[in-house]
């Protein structure tokens, strides 16, 4: 059976990618992203009072490991005049081999209710794409009340032949989502699956949510996701289902290469106490009560790995201002746009 998602808390807002050498492939489907409401400048009211009444996510996985995604939002602006919303998608995901590159293409937006439905702008950073969806910035073509948006795109590089973990919705949106329904279709029979949801943006409070499996399809539902809430979905498929999926890894930045160069030197420097001739102590060891050679050790040096919180042990190197296990955390899941 798929394990309880409390492991998510060990990795803050993303998840360690497990490497399986045998057995069925476990795939954690997710769209770690920023999704936030966008108010018009002249509108009254707080855009964070917007509510997503329903979010339906359809993810079709093909044999090549390509994700075909469609997200349908029933977005309630209330009396506020809104332009649309932002959607930020992570372009890197953590792995033991370094950040995996995730590519997106074929973006399309429609609105069955007649709201402005343009992919108005795409901004790219090293680890994310931010889509500006709805009306262009500066437009007076705003909408109030309940509007429906349908966003579709394809994703390459996110499926691992043996395993993949990620989150479907959340955890940092600044609007409420009343209901999230995620339908996952795999090219082979789904052997096992699970849905988890929580309220803590640290992902440390996962509890089961309903999931039904019917052949190659699993449908999972989470309800009442307040700001900071999240949903995760896992499916298990036969080993080799995504054997054609080939991971691509990001090139390290200059600062990362420098850190890799300095680390062995600092390790050697830190193998002795401060006083020449003092007893050798491993770097990171707590000072012994009888030793006065180093005085009070810094917090980072005075804790052995076995005494660190579980999250710290498994999180790995941090190379972003707010890090996942090996990759910077994406923008909040829901955010406002302004003219």
In helices, the fraction of residues equals under 10%
CATH architecture assignment name of the largest domain: Sandwich
Structural class: mainly beta
Low-confidence stretches: 1-24, 28-32, 266-334
Describe the strand arrangement of the main beta sheet, using strand numbers.
Answer: 8-11-4-3-13-17-16
Give the beta-strand count.
Answer: 18
Spell out the helices and strands N to C: EEEEEEEEEEEEEEEEEEHH
Overall 3D form? globular
Distance between the termini: 49 Å
State the domain count: 2
Q: Output the CATH class name of the largest domain.
A: Mainly Beta
Mean pLDDT value:
71
Strand content: 35-45%
Tally of DSSP helical segments: 2
Q: If you compute it from the alpha carbons, what radius of gyration comes out, rounded to the nearest whole angstrom?
A: 23 Å
- How is the biggest beta sheet arranged? 7 strands, mixed
CATH topology tier name of the largest domain: Immunoglobulin-like
Describe the structure.
The protein has 339 residues and is mostly beta strands. It is 6% helix and 36% strand. It has two domains: 5-237, Immunoglobulin-like, CATH 2.60.40; 258-307, no CATH class. It has helices spanning 254-269, 310-315, and strands spanning 25-29, 33-39, 51-61, 67-76, 82-90, 92-93, 100-101, 103-110, 118-124, 128-134, 146-156, 163-164, 176-185, 192-198, 207-209, 211-214, 217-225, 230-237. The longest helix is centred in the C-terminal third of the chain and has 16 residues, at 254-269. The chain is globular and about 50 Å long.
């Amino acid at each position: 059976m798929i394990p309880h998602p409390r492991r998510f808390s060990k990795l803050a807002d993303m998840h360690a990618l497990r490497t399986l050498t045998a057995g069925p492939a476990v795939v954690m489907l997710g769209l770690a992203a920023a999704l936030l409401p966008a108010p018009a400048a002249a509108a009254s009211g707080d855009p964070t009072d917007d509510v997503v009444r329903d979010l339906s996510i359809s993810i079709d996985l093909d044999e090549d490991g390509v994700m075909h995604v469609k997200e349908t939002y029933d977005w309630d602006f209330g009396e506020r005049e809104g332009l649309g919303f932002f959607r930020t998608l992570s372009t890197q995901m953590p792995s033991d081999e370094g950040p995996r590159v995730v590519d997106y293409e074929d973006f399309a937006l429609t609105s069955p209710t007649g709201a402005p439905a343009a992919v108005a702008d795409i901004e790219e950073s090293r680890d994310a794409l931010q889509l500006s969806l709805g009306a262009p910035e500066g437009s007076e073509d705003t909408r109030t009340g309940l509007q429906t948006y349908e966003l579709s795109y394809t994703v390459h590089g996110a499926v691992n032949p043996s395993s993949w973990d990620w989150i479907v919705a959340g955890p940092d949106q600044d609007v409420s989502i009343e209901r999230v329904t995620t339908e996952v279709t795999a090219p082979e029979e789904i052997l096992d699956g699970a849905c988890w949801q929580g309220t803590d943006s640290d992902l440390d409070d996962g509890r089961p949510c309903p999931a039904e499996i019917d052949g190659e399809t699993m449908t999972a539902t989470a309800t009442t996701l307040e700001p900071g809430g999240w949903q995760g979905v896992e499916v298990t498929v036969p080993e080799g289902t995504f054997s054609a999926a080939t991971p691509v890894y990001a090139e390290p930045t200059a600062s990362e290469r420098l850190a890799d160069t300095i680390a062995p030197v600092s390790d050697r420097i830190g193998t002795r106490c401060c006083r020449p001739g003092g007893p050798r102590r491993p770097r990171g060891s707590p000072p012994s009560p009888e030793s006065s050679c180093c005085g009070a050790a810094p917090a980072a040096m005075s804790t052995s790995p076995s005494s660190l919180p579980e999250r710290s042990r498994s999180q790995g190197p941090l190379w972003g201002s707010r890090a996942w296990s090996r990759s910077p955390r994406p923008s909040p899941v829901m955010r406002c746009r302004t003219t």
